[in-house]
């Protein structure tokens, strides 16, 4: 595997406040990489740095082996970007807007037209392609932005909060689209606050905290790191001491009391059979047992527990 | 940082310039200003024609009088142009850059393989193109009207002087377009930048001619016993007045359209010796006479554009 994005010791300060404070990041080809974190934690700033749209205070970046500061045109030729707040020229039609950026991207017009028609169909805007963007809803604009990234046929697509404003159907279609393109070798960098969605789509995620990456890795690994296990079993029983019963049980990493006779067991495997056997074996009466796969949501909440979310500095 | 970047800063330039020009041509804002210019132009030329017909004279440059003759209460075509052309330029440029911010199109456009240079320059060139087309149209219209009504074709020299006047007007518009562009980069809100540019316009076209003598009087008071202090004051007043592009343009058009103009400053009699009063200057000498004015306007244009450029390069693209 060859990394398509490599950042080392990336720092960006606005005045004296660091927006990005020493980030190391490697994204491999074909990955769907998620940027997570509270508002103001530096996700958008990192994206702008990758695109060469803002200059780093320190550190180095390589995108497709190129330096976005010194070779911005080559980088931007091969990287598609969907900004977090997207705007179009309202007086132009959807088609004209895309044709304009395609010309700026240097596409010959017949090739551009072909791609634009395809992309508009893909995002279900084909029937309004000739309407002025002024008449578009928020979600339609968002989809038009996606179409623009598609037209570019970029090797890396950087989407900043791509689902904002999208209806559930469009969100599902976006996910399918991302999976499909990723399987064709397109690399994605996504930022989003929809953790459940990010969990299903991202091969790896980075949790940003105050300008640096607090956690990075595959979702399963993060759950075991932060929660002590990827599986959570809730047990209800009578007449047994769970701490004693589960002493030395394999895979179990934590026990949390939830109430009288109710406990949560963190484990990195499905340990339900073992728990049942041990409780019954110790003479206890098992009332109920449910298992939940740990969610990114829980990782997130646990990771940022007790932090003031509004302040990044 | 900019010195070592790769790729042409002009990538995308013509695409941007043409799109901007097309946008302007379709914009109601521009249509309105153009209509205003057109109506006043026709009005002033109509007045001039009446005046010229009433005072038929043996003027070698009857045709040029179309541009310069004023009939009360209408000012001449050139003074109208000097007053209104900045308005056109401001309408074309006041929201060039901050409009992209407020529409949130900037990061989308700049994530295409182009440099910021191309966006700024493209917007400037697009505006210039529209101005050039409009001025040319206006000039052809006046010339056509003249031929029709006066019933005589302009001489070769009149055409040359007319074209030089067209060029001077173009440069003058360019200065005001650069003013508008600079405000559109420095000021974040389009409404505020429009106000700033309009303030500059009123200051230079209306108030500056009144202020310059006042300031000169304060800076260089006249000593009744020393006549040279009066000359000194007038020199200062003139230098101050020339800060305004309006003054430079006025002087340039005066020398071009009124061939008898021999000097644009104070004239001493010894400078006139050997020159017959009222004898027209050859075209080349008129051009030489206004050369400093033209160069001054071009320099102002470049300085303003540089200000816009530097300020734009330093901005954060987050919209
Ligand atoms: N132009 C600017 N000048 C000064 N500070 C800025 C500027 N832009 C962003 N910041 C600061 O940089 C920090 C990181 O902002 P950034 O936009 O990267 O956050 P984010 O993770 O994308 O947040 P969100 O989830 O709200 O999109 C914030 O503290 C913000 O206040
Ligand atoms: Mg953001």
Automatic annotation (TrEMBL), chain A:
Annotated ranges, domain ABC transporter: 5-235
InterPro entries recorded: AAA+_ATPase (IPR003593), ABC_transporter-like_ATP-bd (IPR003439), P-loop_NTPase (IPR027417)
UniProt xrefs under CDD domains: ABC_DR_subfamily_A
Keywords from the UniProt entry: ATP-binding, Nucleotide-binding, Transport
Keyword hit for Transport: yes
PROSITE patterns: ABC_TRANSPORTER_2
Superkingdom of this protein's organism: Bacteria
Assigned protein family: Belongs to the ABC transporter superfamily.
The protein's name in its UniProt record: ABC-2 type transport system ATP-binding protein
Species assigned in the record: Mesorhizobium qingshengii
Automatic annotation (TrEMBL), chain B:
Residue spans crossing the bilayer: 32-54, 74-97, 118-142, 162-183, 195-220, 290-312
One Pfam entry name: ABC2_membrane_2
Keyword Transmembrane recorded: yes
Record keywords, A-Z: Membrane, Transmembrane, Transmembrane helix
Domain of life: Bacteria
The keyword Transferase appears for this protein: no
Gene Ontology CC terms, in alphabetical order: plasma membrane
GO MF annotations in UniProt: ABC-type transporter activity
PANTHER family: ABC TRANSPORTER PERMEASE, ABC-2 TYPE TRANSPORT SYSTEM PERMEASE PROTEIN
Name used for this protein in its record: ABC-2 type transport system permease protein
Record organism: Mesorhizobium qingshengii
